[in-house]
Amino acid sequence: MPLALLALAIGAFGIGTTEFVIMGLLPEVAGDYGVSIPTAGFLVTGYALGVMFGAPLMTVLGTRVPRKRMLMLLMGLFIIGNLISALAPAFSVMLIGRVVASLAHGAFFGIGSVVAADLVAPDKKAGAIAMMFTGLTVANVVGVPLGTLVGQTAGWRVTFAVVAALGVVGLAGVAKLVPDLPKPEGVRLRHELAAFRNAQVLLAMAMTVLGFGGVFAAITYIAPMMTHTAGFAEGSVTWLLVLFGLGMVGGNLVGGKFADRALMPMLYTSLGGLAVVLALFTFTAHNKIAAAVTIALIGALGFATVPPLQKRVLDHAHGAPTLASAVNIGAFNLGNALSAWLGGLVIAAGLGYTAPNWVGAVLAAAALALAFLSAALERRAETPTTATATATAIATADAGPADRPAVAHH
């Protein structure tokens, strides 16, 4: 594998760390700025919304400059955003920093995937893209727990300063190791946008929003839920996030393995299981061992949906894979934003720190319903074609010699 993939993986590691580490540090940030936990949750929502809008915008803008330069610009944006967060004198300034950093997220993965695939032989493209995304999954096993530990011991500002430094390493790696690639052909925006008129693309993205939203309704408020309800010490949140990360890695691998073999059954299983586990989390959150097991299961079931959902979008987004891929990354983050906001609402309403789990269960169940709807529409779309072909075959078979067209002989 080319060393350039390592540079892309380091960038992905930094981006994954900054996205998820805030969830383990919400109590510290809220306490420092004198805001409530639900208000601090806007740091999750703001980042997610930034990814949602930034992914398609930056991907389209990125077609105007060489890909290597665009990747460097995106890492620069990421570094600036995290430095603003680290130094922010007020909560509103930190929120701005989160949004600035988020603008780099979707486009980095969208453009980075194309670059990774271009660096290797055709039969190794999937492996190259997976290598880059390894940075994101490892971030959740190593970067997020370590970042949470650093934030709880040395202060959350140090965490964001370290993440900014990771961005500098990623930027240097891209500059040094990624070769200069030819400027891509200009995107025909009208053609790209045509993919979004496909009902199956929109349904897959809606499943992404609701399914991933189910995961982050619970995980956004994992720190206060585990310390106040389960009785864990603050330092234990780090190890709970390691469990969540390990679940993610395992679920992602299983989802990827079965997405090619049986995509829709994989979605039914993972979304159905996720809805049940999230509903049960309301009860298991009162027991330390049961809560830990449940957190790992949420990570596994939630991220088992990622490969099949991403593949379903690409399968139906004919002619616009880069933009559709970037927009679906935005859809994952719209799910984050929606669930963080809804979770904050039910906590603020006095329903307790476990209430977001019910929100997550409802969102996951809604995604499952959409999966069944999508499959039903697909079967209905195929039925007329099959019926027409059958009718034609019968008519041809029944036609007598006089009814058949004459064949010219030369």
From TrEMBL:
InterPro entries: MFS, MFS_dom, MFS_Efflux_Transporters, MFS_trans_sf. Keywords: Cell membrane, Membrane, Transmembrane, Transmembrane helix. SUPFAM superfamilies: MFS general substrate transporter. Pfam families: MFS_1. Residues 4-379 form the Major facilitator superfamily (MFS) profile domain. Gene3D superfamilies: MFS general substrate transporter like domains (1.20.1250.20). It is found in: Cell membrane. It is a multi-pass membrane protein. The chain crosses the membrane at residues 42-61, 73-96, 102-121, 128-150, 156-178, 199-224, 236-254, 266-283, 289-309, 330-352, 358-377. It comes from the Bacteria. The keyword Transmembrane helix applies. This is MFS transporter.
